[in-house]
Design goal:
202 residues, alpha+beta, Alpha-Beta Plaits, 2 domains, five-stranded antiparallel β-sheet, 4 helices, 25% strand
């Protein structure tokens, strides 16, 4: 089909318009793809930031839980007077109270000099664990007297009581008539452990 010059002139403007629209369409598609790609990248970055924030919050929550647990242990130790200087007067009061409340026939003890067990480095200062060995001699009617004594001693607080050794021997002397006499004798070495927090002291 042959077109005349006049027909070509008539078709030129619509052809140019079509080409312009086609180019605009291609440009719009490319722009849409670029915008979509950038949006996807921003969404991925936002999700990564959200995941990192969630991980940080989870770590903070876990650290907060650990701090609460350690604080509860610290407060419990402080309430039992395990943290701080050793409390020899309180130990003496506790021994007298146990002897009276349990009607022990004879209770003798001697507390040796305090010694450093271990020093744990920390911030801002170290934590030192000390031990004073208490040597105890008890006259017993039966083994339960010793168990009751150790139970009461642990419940008295003022230190952490660690029984290193206890030996029980039978008393050879014959009981006198009408009087309660000990049948057994116990010798125990008990470590009285206290904790000195240098940071708390400062």
């Amino acid at each position: 089909m042959n077109l005349t010059a006049a027909e070509i002139r008539k078709l030129l403007l619509p052809a140019l318009a079509c080409a312009a629209l086609l180019a605009a369409g291609v440009a719009l598609v490319l722009h849409a793809r670029h915008t979509l790609l950038r949006a996807d990248q921003q969404l991925a970055a936002a999700r990564e930031d959200r995941n990192k924030a969630a991980e940080r919050l989870s770590r903070i929550a876990e650290e907060e839980r650990e701090v609460r647990e350690k604080l509860a242990v610290y407060q419990r130790l402080k309430a039992l007077h395990i943290i701080g200087e050793e409390r020899r007067l309180e130990w003496a009061d506790a021994m007298a109270r146990i002897k009276t409340s349990r009607d022990l026939l004879d209770l003798r003890y001697r507390v040796e000099r305090q010694k450093l067990l271990v020093s744990v480095p920390g911030k801002p200062a170290s934590v030192d664990f000390y031990s004073s060995t208490m040597k105890v001699q008890i006259a017993l009617l039966d083994e339960n007297d010793l168990l009751d004594f150790l139970h009461d001693l642990r419940d008295s607080g003022n230190a952490y009581y660690s029984v290193r050794s206890c030996s029980i021997t039978r008393v050879s002397q014959a009981p006198t008539a009408g009087a309660m006499a000990p049948r057994l004798s116990a010798d125990c070495d008990i470590d009285l452990i206290t904790i000195l927090d240098r940071a708390a002291k400062a």
